[in-house]
């Protein structure tokens, strides 16, 4: 019997050992379970809120808030950056200590700031489109008018360089509008308009002497009418028309001039058509002129010579300058362009009719304009 005691002791010890292991394992399971519950109960990262903030910022970017509402968008971006800092700060804590309540509050701030930025950007963009529409329309209308004026008046009257710059501004403006760069598009439209306004003002300034002469030419017509002598010829250069007044009737013809047609002729070779009161001094039939038929007028007359000599004396013309001559009303016209050296050109059939109506000695008034309402000019007025 005494020899059985060690076995009993060993068995007891083994039993105790098995119980300890079960207790330890059970304890470990309990700890894991408790940690799991704690983890499960811990405050999770508010991913839905973060995604909502991301979407709000993306919407603001699509509205170009970075360009059209930079201050508002900067505040929204700063709020988002602060949100991410809070998320990292809470994430560094152990689960039981985490709380993302401050993150949720910050997310709401981001969303609200982003919405304000997007709303502001859309409002600014709409305003810019309105400004661009008005400014661009006015500039384009002015541009079109000046382009037509460039085709109507002598080359020196319309600033071709300004028109070229305006075309370039318009091209860049359209490209900026197409790409959504509305601030740049508005700036280019304003530059286009400014260039065109300057060119328009320059045109009107160059036309002031023409307008200033209108009352004189109108008085000359009234004097010819009051004389009762017909026929007489009136050439209105701005209207590109020649009128034959005869016995209560007026015949009208389209005409073309010298390339530098508006304003008085100053010197030989200036390609200008003279202005003043003249008379037909010779009729040139077939074989006597290069242009079908012609009526030679008495340019230069006394007034032309007086003006020419004054210009030579005061130095506005060189002493070697010559006054020129051989100004005719002749055929060969109908080219829809001013091409003569200073004469007045009609289509051949019209010239035949004029040749029939006008004898030697007929008065011929050549006027820059009989009206102050000049084509493509807004502000010209009688003086």
Describe this structure in words.
This protein has 383 residues and is an alpha+beta fold. The protein has three domains: 1-41; 131-207, no CATH class; 214-367, L,D-transpeptidase catalytic domain-like, CATH 2.40.440.10. Helices cover 57% and strands 10% of the residues. It has ten helices and eight strands. It has helices at residues 5-41, 47-62, 65-68, 70-91, 101-152, 160-178, 182-212, 214-227, 302-313, 348-357; strands at residues 232-236, 241-246, 249-254, 276-284, 294-297, 328-330, 344-345, 363-367. The chain has an eight-stranded mixed beta sheet with strand order 3-2-1-8-4-5-6-7. A hairpin with a 2-residue loop joins β2 and β3. Residues 37-41 have low confidence and may be disordered.
CATH topology assignment of the largest domain: L,D-transpeptidase catalytic domain-like
Rg over CA atoms: 46 Å
Q: Biggest sheet, open or closed, and with what strands and sense?
A: 8 strands, mixed
Which class of secondary structure composition applies to the elements?
alpha+beta
**Structural domain count:** 3
Question: Widest sheet: strand order?
Answer: 3-2-1-8-4-5-6-7
CATH class of the largest domain: Mainly Beta
Q: Considering DSSP H and I runs of 4 or more, what fraction of the residues is helical?
A: 55-70%
In DSSP terms (H or I, runs of 4 or more residues), the helix count works out at 10
**What's the helix-strand series?**
HHHHHHHHEEEEEHEEHE
Q: What would you call the shape?
A: rod-shaped
CATH architecture of the largest domain: Beta Barrel
Q: Name the CATH homologous superfamily of the largest domain.
A: L,D-transpeptidase catalytic domain-like
